Amino acid sequence: MNYNLQMRLPLSVIALLFSLNGSAQLDSVSVHPLLKQHISTLASDEFGGREPGTKGEELARNYIIKEFKAIGLSPKGENGFLQPFNFTKSLQVGPKSKLIVGTTPLSAGHAFYPLPYSANAAAKGQGIKVGYGINAPKLGHNDYTSDFLRGIDLKGKIFIIDAATPDKDGPHSKFAEFADLRSRIDTAIKYGAAGVLFYTSDKEMKEPTLNAKMRITPCAIPVLYMVRAESAILNGTAPVQMDMVAEIIKEEATGNNVMGYLDNKAATTIVIGAHYDHLGHGGDESLYRGEPAVHNGADDNASGVAGVIELARYIKEKGPKNNNYLFMAFSGEKGLIGFRTFHQKIYH
Asked: pTM higher than 0.90 for the full model?
């Protein structure tokens, strides 16, 4: 039967959040041997942290498919048990990226880099400091109506924005609702910005990154970030001539959800799932900042996938027959890419 037609039946969705206690040991007698086997295999160094689009993800999905087959589930993906999806694996600073402040050229990828909100585009002209670039009506704060900017025609200028907040309170700032970078970019565009250069001298602020895992639709202008160590070049309030080019090179890849089906000829289908991918060897999403190393992800979320597999076994052998069951192992957990793919193909 056609996948889309059948899966438009009413769905009850169970989100499995299985995880082992941080202090639990896999050799504990309280851990079922099959759960231990699944977790130990998926979280092994051989699987390399199961980053989407890598050999480790392939090994993990092949293991899950093997278990689904052994249980007696039917394939329910678009390619056997697999439901593929495309995603942006990495973003790199392109060689055309450029930033000249006054007469000083800066090094792309070191002194500055494009942000993922940026278009591949260029802007040249006068750079104007617009404070924090925040318009927060509820707080009675608008950087664009400051005395400093009164009477200045901002249209077509490059806006220089401090990426911190007025109260320097980071994610706990009272301005947080208005201070995410995309909101400030959109506000800048409304005020006529031809380009945006973020910077900050706030040593407590975490600097933004060129992160491919953020689900972002680029804007229509170039957006660069100057690293904190270079921010002294922007001292003073006088306008400065600027020449900027943003180029981001995308590396595209394919990930896969794994889908096994238990058809009881019922009117409703219950979906039971957990994500099987993890962080690979680290990167921007990891708190670890040493040399690249395997992030095994036993509790994020090998334990959840182990639970899905063993629930499938139990329901197949002893479970109620008044529902169909779709057992899923999602990939692309960051940004919910795998789940969004599934959801869109069900409801659209």
From this structure: no
